[in-house]
Design brief:
This protein has helices spanning 2-20, 23-31, 57-73, 90-95, 155-167, 179-187, 198-206, 235-251, 253-262, 280-287, and strands spanning 33-38, 41-42, 46-48, 54-55, 79-84, 101-102, 107-108, 117-132, 147-151, 172-176, 193-197, 214-230. The protein contains ten helices and twelve strands. Helix 3 crosses helix 8 (235-251).
Length: 295
């Protein structure tokens, strides 16, 4: 009887150990590799700089989180593997666990939460329009019957289609494969306006041949929260990610990163400066970290 009880106790301990060895942290501990989602042109969040190195405000979060993983797992070495993602592939590659963590310009919403989990929010945006200053477009209703470009597979695409149907604007929606193609479409005149998250539009103006020709217009349509994507039902890894982001916010490190990428010249496109102040919403987020989606 004593031997049976001892065996049962041992089985319980082993079962607990096995349960702990699940999820992303267990995968990383076993392989010594952490796979991060990379983007080519999500400036200034996650992009290739002029030296063909991955960089960006959100990429810095990925690397800080990787450092935290290495410390928590007490790994002597952690190999970082980068996998290039697009707006069309990013959710699926995180959901099927090909990618451990993706931090870029990805919106946390209830629909995506059916497939993946999201970290604490690290940026708040609103959908607006980028147009030439002489376009005559100042409001969303000015788009009636015109060509408008939006990046495929984004929350912006879904919102634009919804607005177009509800308001009977008759917009001809052009889909771009990524942020670069989106801006090129409006720059070459194939569309009169580009719809994207406002901070992305300001980064497009900063890298335009003549920034003085462009402006961001239209009242923001629905606030959106950017978060890092990770696999669903992985509370231990999510806690590590959330705690890392919250600590960066409360220590002032996140604000320093903001100044580096949004208020200083960054090494991309020969030197780019977005020069946008921190919004009141962002300052409040830094004081009160959370993972809440707006939709």
């Amino acid at each position: 009887m004593i031997r049976l009880l001892a065996f049962a106790a041992l089985a319980t301990v082993l079962g607990s150990a096995t349960a702990q060895e699940t999820g992303t942290l267990a995968k990383i501990k076993q392989t010594g590799v952490m796979t991060l989602g990379a983007r080519e042109a999500s400036i200034p969040f996650n992009y290739l700089d002029d030296h063909q190195r991955q960089a960006g405000y959100a990429w810095e979060l990925s690397t800080r989180i990787a450092d935290a993983v290495k410390r928590q797992l007490k790994l002597p070495k952690l190999e970082i593997k980068e996998i290039n993602l697009t707006p069309q592939t990013r959710v699926a590659l995180v959901a099927n666990q090909t990618v451990d963590l993706e931090c870029s310009s990805t919106t946390n919403n209830l629909e995506r939460q059916k497939q993946v989990a999201f970290s604490n929010t690290f940026f708040i945006v609103g959908a607006r329009l980028l147009v030439r200053k002489n376009s005559g477009i100042q409001h969303w209703a000015d788009l009636i019957g015109k060509n408008v470009v939006v990046s495929a597979g984004t929350t912006g695409e879904r919102l634009l289609r919804k607005l177009n149907v509800e308001n009977r604007w008759g917009i001809n929606i052009i889909l771009a494969k990524d942020i670069n193609e989106n801006f090129l479409t409006v720059e070459t005149g194939r569309a009169v306006a580009s719809m994207q998250d406002d901070i992305i539009l300001y980064s497009n103006i900063a890298r335009a041949k003549d920034p003085s020709m462009w402006e961001v217009v239209g009242m923001p349509q629905q606030r959106e929260a950017y978060g890092c994507m990770l696999r669903k039902d992985d509370p231990a890894f999510k806690k590590l990610v959330d705690d890392t982001i919250a600590a960066m916010m409360k220590s002032g490190e996140m604000e320093a990163l903001y100044k580096r990428y949004f208020q200083s010249t960054i090494a991309v496109k020969g030197g780019l400066r977005i020069d946008r102040p921190l919004s009141p919403e962002m300052l409040d987020l830094f004081k009160h970290p959370n993972d809440k989606a707006f939709q």
